[in-house]
Amino acid sequence: MEGSEALISEAGVSMAPVEDLGAGRGPFWLDDWLRANATDVLAWRRHIHAHPELSRHEFATTELVVTLLRSVGLKPWVLPGGTGVVCDIGSGERCVALRADMDALPLTEATGLPYASTTEGAAHMCGHDAHTAILLGAARALAGAPELPGRVRLIFQPAEEVMPGGALDMIAAGALDGVERIYGLHVDPRLEVGSVGMRVGALTSAADLIELRLTSPGGHTSRPHLTADLVHALGTVITSLPAVLSRRVDPRSGTVLVWGAVHAGQAANAVPQDGVLRGTLRTADHEVWTALEPLVAASVESLLAPTGVGFHLDYRRGVPPVVSDPESTALMRAGTEAALGEGAVAATEQSSGGEDFGWYLEHVQGAFARLGVWPGPPAPQSDIHRPTFVLDERALLCGVRTLVHTALTTLA
């Protein structure tokens, strides 16, 4: 399994080594390992990219990870569900964790790459293939270190793309037992390769799902006074609930409700008997997040009371915001600068997107950062979650160095 081409496809994909932007920064064993194995890191990423697996079905990816870890003498264990891997490197009571997610998105790839997805309806358009390859590279480099100042725990997580997220499975299985801090990276096509974006505080938002089902006796549109006008009630909630929340929640929290789907009726002259409204509610404030569900329930009830329409609210809590603490962020900054240089750390904005890494930070301190994967001008920026998303593979080696140095800096 160690040959590059064997890990891509039966036919193999030829490729040249990419530039290692952190070369020469040490430690010597990391430089030596990357010099000898950089193309393998690329090959692992390309193989995973070509063979994507959806959430909770990452069986082949899990097997690949286990095989590559065992081949250097490590002892990984797999979660009871058959996807997800945990493995320790080193010894001692102190333990720092590094996490990567492994699942793909239910999208059809349109990049035209020679190693594009071979699985219909699944593609790594969020960079989880890169995350997995980066952590594999960091693992095998750390496994070859002469000595480590403590333990490094590898967490290869399934099901990040589904709420409430596979992080909960990892935590329930004991992946955080004995861990003092945890770190993670996510590719960012808005940052140039060689840079890592980080910030203290909220980096991503909590993301909840709302599904509201309405019911009415139905009737003729010429006699709306004899029934409950379900479509009018839907419109009331669509326009009024976001407005109500904007007056009941601190605007500094970055709370936003956006509807994504609405369905009701078929005939133009018939009041429908049922309808459904779906949307997402996001906030960067953890305290606000805990108060949103009862606030939404009370607001919906008040808005619909005059309409006579019945309703059932299904409020699904998603993931908490990712909030990096100051000390962990400082350690990750120091590790990144040691890995890539003093100018490597970039400022980054808080996002309304959700990320289940936040569940880990409910239990231990840690930091999450954005890894630049944009080649820079004049190359266009292709956003994640699009069928055309591509990344600069030099970022893989930057990611390996960043994780290794962050772990070493934390354990020092």
Automatic annotation (TrEMBL):
Entries under Pfam families matching the protein: Peptidase_M20 (PF01546)
Keyword Chaperone part of the UniProt annotation: no
Annotated GO MF terms: hydrolase activity; metal ion binding
Residues annotated to bind Mn(2+): C126, H128, E161, H186, H385
Entry superkingdom: Bacteria
Classification via PANTHER family: METALLOPEPTIDASE, PUTATIVE (AFU_ORTHOLOGUE AFUA_6G09600)-RELATED, PEPTIDASE M20 FAMILY MEMBER
Comment on bound cofactor: The Mn(2+) ion enhances activity.
Protein name (record): Metal-dependent amidase/aminoacylase/carboxypeptidase
Cofactors demanded by this protein: Mn(2+)
NCBIfam families referenced in this protein's UniProt entry, alphabetically: amidohydrolases
Keyword GTP-binding on entry: no
Keywords: Manganese, Metal-binding
InterPro entries membership: Amidohydrolase (IPR017439), Bact_exopeptidase_dim_dom (IPR036264), Peptidase_M20 (IPR002933)
